[in-house]
Amino acid sequence: MNYAIRAERISHSFADKKVLNNITFAVQEGEIFGLLGPSGAGKTTLIKILTGQLKQKNGSAALFGKDTAKLTALEHSRIGIMMDNWGLYERLSAYDNLLFYADIYHISHSVVNETLKDFGLYEARKLPVSKFSKGMKNRLSLARALMNHAKLVFLDEPTSGLDPATTKQIHEALKEQKEKGTTIFLTTHNMFEAQYLCDSIALLSRGSMIECGSPVDICKKYNHLNRIEVTCRDGKKVSLENGSQAIPLLKDYLEHNLIETIHSTEPTLETVFIELTGKGLDSNE
Predict the structure, then answer these.
(1) pLDDT at 3
(2) Tally: H helices and E strands in the chain
């Protein structure tokens, strides 16, 4: 099995505050891996370690089998990174922003216009980035991260604060990259995004990994959270365990025509995370 990323017992602290504690996981080549956790859980710190921007206090990190501290310039050039608006120059146009990075990566200038068209930014190519909306900046940041045909891309909250239409555009762009064989490491606190995009995920809370696996398998593991939610005609709401013990009460409700709506609530990544931590994915730790 070929791994794009391997992390072994990574720990890190800032002064006396431990932000990562014994993190171990692996990401297969060509998959989308999601790291889920609320703000302050340690997601950005882990990305900085994996990309060689920060040296961990303990443990090891490797990309394509090589220690992240020993990557060559050529190997770094095959890695894309998107962290907020990191790497954008506000006073330059969208075209000049990508042209600057094309020269760094020794990429043909013709790729710049092609990339702008792919991300719906060609018509705005001459505008300074300072006049861009947040969604346009995110798309330009993603375009910059992908324009070098990266084998591995790190994306830190790429759709945070975006409208649904822009979020969908970015999701589709990521799925296209996966089809091309790109490995994507995605941090998010959006459970719907993770379930839609990711082949495997890890749940991070207070610097510790509390679950790891495919979204489907993790939800199945906590199937005891499966409930039956009943809304009665008088407005009363009843939550029942989804099992044989609910039959007598449901039978009584049905016989007396008391039910307005009924549906099952399968466990989601959000309900699993809340059970494990007592907090939601959108909380601040």
Answers:
(1) 93
(2) 10, 13
Looking at 192, 212, 232, which one is the last position of a domain?
212
Q: What is the spatial distance between Cα 222 and Cα 275, in angstroms, rounded to a whole number?
A: 9
Low-confidence residues in the chain, pLDDT < 70:
84-86, 225, 279-285
Which tens digits make up the pLDDT trace of 214-224? 999 998 888 77
Q: Alpha helix locations (H) across 149-257?
A: 164-179, 191-197, 215-221, 247-255
Residue pLDDT, tens place only, 232-261: 999 889 888 887 888 888 888 888 898 899
Give the C-alpha separation, 212 to 35, whole Å. Answer: 9
Q: Which residues of 29-56 are buried (b: 16+ CB within 10 A; e: fewer)?
A: ebbbbbbbbbeebbbbbbbbbbbbebeb
Domain containing residue 64: 3-212
Residue 147 DSSP SS3: coil
Residue 211: which H helix or E strand, with range? strand 208-213
Whole-angstrom distance, CA of residue 164 vs CA of residue 175:
16
How far is the C-alpha of 90 from the C-alpha of 231, rounded, in Å?
52
- In which region does residue 68 sit, left (phi positive, over 0), alpha (psi from -120 to 50) or beta (all else)? alpha
Residues 236-246 as b/e (b if ≥16 CB within 10 A, e otherwise) read eebebebeeeb
Residue 242: inside a domain: yes
pLDDT score of 283:
62
149 and 241 together in one domain: no
Structural domain count of the chain? 2
